[in-house]
Specification:
Blueprint: H1 4-13, H2 15-49, H3 54-66, H4 69-80, H5 85-109, H6 113-121, H7 126-156, H8 169-178, H9 181-208, H10 215-229, E1 241-246, H11 249-265, E2 270-276, H12 279-287, E3 293-297, H13 298-305, H14 316-331, E4 333-335, E5 345-350, H15 351-357, E6 373-377, H16 378-381, H17 387-394, E7 400-404, H18 406-414, E8 420-424, H19 429-432, E9 435-438, E10 450-455, H20 456-461, H21 466-470, H22 478-489, H23 495-505
Parallel strand pairs: 1-2, 1-3, 6-7, 6-8
Antiparallel strand pairs: 3-10, 4-10, 5-8, 5-9
InterPro entries: ABC_Gly_betaine_transp_sub-bd, ABC_transp_perm/SBD, EgtUBC_SBD, MetI-like, MetI-like_sf
Protein name: Osmoprotectant transport system permease protein
Family: In the N-terminal section; belongs to the binding-protein-dependent transport system permease family. In the C-terminal section; belongs to the OsmX family.
Amino acid sequence: MATLQELWELFSTRQGEFWQVMWQHVHMSVVALLFAVLIAVPLGIILTRKQKLAEPIIGVAAVLQTIPSLALLGFMILLLNQIGTLPAVVALTAYALLPILRNTYTGIQGVDPSIQEAAVGMGMSSFRKLRKIELPMAMPIIMAGVRTSMVLIVGTATLAALISAGGLGDFIMTGIDRANNAYILLGALPAALLALFFDFILRMTEKRSQGKTLAPILAVLGLSVAIALAPLFSFAQQPQITIGGKITAEPEIIANMYKHLIEEETDLMVDVRTGMGSTDIAFNALQSDDVDVYLEFTGTALTTLLNQTPEPGTTEEEVYEQARTGLMEEYDLAYLEPMAFNNTYALAVRGETAEELGIETISDMETYRDQLTAGFTFEFADREDGYIGLQDIYGFSFENVETMDSGLRTRALTTEQVDFIDAFSTSADIIEYDLALMEDDENLFPPYQGAPLMKQETLEEYPELEEPLNRLGGMITDEEMQEMNYKVEYDDEDPYDVAEEYLQSVDLL
């Protein structure tokens, strides 16, 4: 468990990033609450007038809240065809509707009928009765629903980091990926405190609403609108190019190298958005123009994006050319020059286990297939160049296979919950935990050289991008990449600084 000193040291070195993601979290949460209030309160009022619709509509809101939040985020990506803040806010809004809708309906329905009749007897119109009697009297109950929704939103918003929407979840996902409790706490503790803070503010507002006025809900709406519109008044120079990257240190390091090179050699401003949860999310972000460039590996481009399986033993040059041609023909994407390092898949076993069993190749593992427990990522377990292909090429499967998040598999291996895992050949975990990589003696895994992927139209609009992005072509060895990954993951150095240090060492900066 991380000590308070470790947490404080991490906060001290990541202050700038911390306040940035804190603002992203607050902004995203408040915007979602604003939309939830603007939808649920009027709808709740309408349902008190159309009571036959109340049960089915509140039921739909209840169903939305029962959908797992991560699944709802994924559905919004598909529905809106983009990643980032918009699908996150839409999902959070849907998630927050039920408490506000139900409390608005229940609060107005609970107004004393004799008071309602007296208002009608005084000649009040339906709207005047709503404004003067029903809403003010129901306000404490409505505000209780708003409080509940706010806490739900703040907690759920941490998952938005998986779709590159930012927020405190960035630290949590980094911590899970690196098995670093300090990062997890740096995201989780402020999220919990933020939820308590908002709950306190809204509780104070709720107490004020005992005075039977509309002021509390109007104050919440006014503050929410102010926070939602705040980015419109930012005078900071906006980036012209956005470089994306998947989860793990490696894409973040390379993305920052691209940023350094582009800003050094052109007049373009570059933003880096990493932490995208999977290949599909990163590729969808590119297609929907949420990012302009991202690092993709040749083997992944060929097998996942083009659904082509290279023959075992296909060379690095052949895989790249096949991927480059296919991406241009099928998607009109430009795939620029690949780097030298080959971050291919491998099966990693604890060093002592490999020595004890005398296994050095994947074929050697067949003898122990009923004894060894595998720990695979969800993506590897479902890939043709992963476990599916392994069963086909090697002709055997493992009796016990556990699937898990990529950030958990190394910990599962080192704590002996599994016996081997899928790994990348440039992973820093190999050094840190003395892992033994099984030789791919049937050449199942294709080459995985990283190269920048972008739309052809983007390259035509910004032709000056090609030269700096190609600077890294043929550079960075496996050992250099592994060392840089180690600096970020275990020495906790900033990917921006690690990228800058390497570029200076090879005279590119």
